[in-house]
């Protein structure tokens, strides 16, 4: 079992930046894949970005590619999401997700989920 806790959300104005963090605890696999999803009211959960604790690569959703940056710290079992130049359309609850087998996927089919952190971008 893996527990995930997100932090770093808040209320910002368009053009501002936020950095999100997620720490994993419990039975941590060295192959742990960690991802970010977001969900706005009335909309389906949307893939944002993902990486793994072992391999140095990143995958991004179409809506954030070229804007956001995902990174991991394997020593701390953490994943980060840097979000510069935020837009009102980025407003959502951002969720951290993980699985034990190291597969990065863009569908919300991960085994473990955090409780989410709210990001609100005003215009």
Summarize the structure.
The protein has 123 residues and is an all-beta fold. It is 0% helix and 50% strand.
Describe the protein in words.
The protein has no helices and eleven strands. It has strands at residues 2-7, 10-13, 18-26, 33-39, 46-52, 59-60, 69-73, 78-83, 92-99, 112-113, 117-122. Strands 2, 4, 5, 6, 9, 10 and 11 form a seven-stranded mixed beta sheet that branches. It has a four-stranded antiparallel beta sheet with strand order 1-3-8-7, with no helix packed on it.
As a percent range, the share of helical residues equals: under 10%
List the total number of helices.
0
The assembly state of the depicted protein chains is single chain
| Number of distinct beta strands | 11
Please write out the topology.
Elements: E1 2-7, E2 10-13, E3 18-26, E4 33-39, E5 46-52, E6 59-60, E7 69-73, E8 78-83, E9 92-99, E10 112-113, E11 117-122
Parallel strand pairs: 2-11
Antiparallel strand pairs: 1-3, 3-8, 4-5, 4-9, 5-6, 7-8, 9-10, 9-11
Task: Label this structure with key terms.
123 residues; mainly beta; 11 strands
């Amino acid at each position: 079992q893996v527990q995930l806790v997100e932090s770093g959300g808040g209320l910002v104005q368009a053009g501002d930046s936020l950095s999100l963090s997620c720490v994993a605890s419990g039975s941590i696999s060295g192959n742990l894949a960690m991802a970010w999803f977001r969900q706005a009211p009335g909309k389906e959960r949307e893939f944002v970005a993902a990486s793994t604790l072992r391999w140095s690569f990143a995958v991004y959703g179409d809506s954030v590619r070229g804007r956001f940056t995902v990174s991991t710290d394997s020593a701390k079992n953490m994943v980060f999401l840097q979000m510069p130049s935020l837009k009102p359309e980025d407003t959502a609850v951002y969720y951290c997700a993980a699985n034990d087998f190291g597969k990065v996927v863009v569908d919300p089919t991960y085994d473990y989920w955090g409780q989410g952190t709210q990001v609100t971008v005003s215009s």
